[in-house]
Amino acid sequence: MSLAILVAQIFCLLAALVHFGSIAIVTLRGRAGRRDDGRPHGRPPVSILRPVCGIEHAIERTLGSGFELDYPDYELIFCVANGADPVIPRIRRLMAANPAVPARILVGDDRISINPKLNNLVKGWAAAKHEWIVMADSNVLMPPDYLDRMLDRWDATTGLVCSPPLGSEPDGYGAEFECAYLNTYQARWQLAADAIGQGFAQGKSMFWRRENLDRHGGIAALAADPAEDAAATKAIRANGQRIRLVRQPFAQPLGPRALRAVWSRQLRWARLRRVTFPAFFCMEFLTGGLFPIALAAWLAFQDGIPGWLAPTLAVAWYGAEALLAKNLGWHYSRRSPLAWIVRDLSLPALWIAAVCGSGFEWRGNQMNVKKDSLLATETD
């Protein structure tokens, strides 16, 4: 047996174990019930900060869901950078239709970082009345038990509770492609990391106790990295605390998505991961089914494994993703398997593109992860 065949066999075996193992962990974790030991912190008053910018898909439904929470005491603070933003009249209509829920709009842009969302949130953090604070993106669809599900994950070792985005209601191939990245790939790896005690922050929904961030200088501490969730991860770990993820992520209705926009968003996130967590980013090149399935086919051609193993691995690989999605009630359609295959084929290209450049566009701002500043123009 040649060394190349042995290395390929070991790689395929390890890749399969990690892939199927992570899916099993996340499935069991997601189906587990809530704790039966009560809420150690009760149901404390909560301030919910929602940065908004422009009219997004289903914006009135996602923002409106914040007014329908089954929770006794909370306030909503909508943070808007530009007073002429067309989303403001829609927020005002929601506030008028739900007068029982304390809500307000704050306008202004505090430039403390290259991150436009963080700059938009600064005023909300300062104005929040309560010790417990949620930062939730405007496209998060909040279920009635949104706050309880995050409090359920808080214990004595916790410094932050988060939720990765979970794509739902995709309309078209671009949105299916985005679901393929968000759900059974990115959300699965994040939830698996949390299950083994290595959870990391995701900026889609972040549930804070104010003191855990204030000891690092308050919200300005999140400007230490280009992405606020990377800075949050480092700050909480510096406290000796854990970041925990909700058992079931909260949905983000996607609607129609252009493939180019999906690719640009994934490239932005990849370039941010490259500079914030370089060791983990280096391993991303080998994730997905492309390399293990291709190597299994090569091994079968070289008589390194029985011929039937390669197609069996391919079917089992994506069949396991289908079972994960169906068992946890995540989006699944007849287009999903094709979207997963296209995603895995694109992963090496995404990784190479992330390595070969540092610029990206975020909310109309041209930014650079190396120069750490807002740029008038960017050329890669």
TrEMBL record:
Pathway: Lipid metabolism; sphingolipid metabolism; Sphingolipid metabolism. The keyword Metal-binding does not apply. It is found in: Membrane. Its main location: membrane. Keywords: Glycosyltransferase, Membrane, Transferase, Transmembrane, Transmembrane helix. One of its GO terms (molecular function) is ceramide glucosyltransferase activity. Gene3D superfamilies: Spore Coat Polysaccharide Biosynthesis Protein SpsA, Chain A. The keyword Cytoplasm does not apply. Pfam families: Glyco_transf_21. It is a multi-pass membrane protein. The chain crosses the membrane at residues 6-28, 275-301. Its EC number is 2.4.1.80. InterPro entries: Ceramide_glucosylTrfase, Nucleotide-diphossugar_trans. PANTHER family: CERAMIDE GLUCOSYLTRANSFERASE (PTHR12726:SF0). This is Ceramide glucosyltransferase.
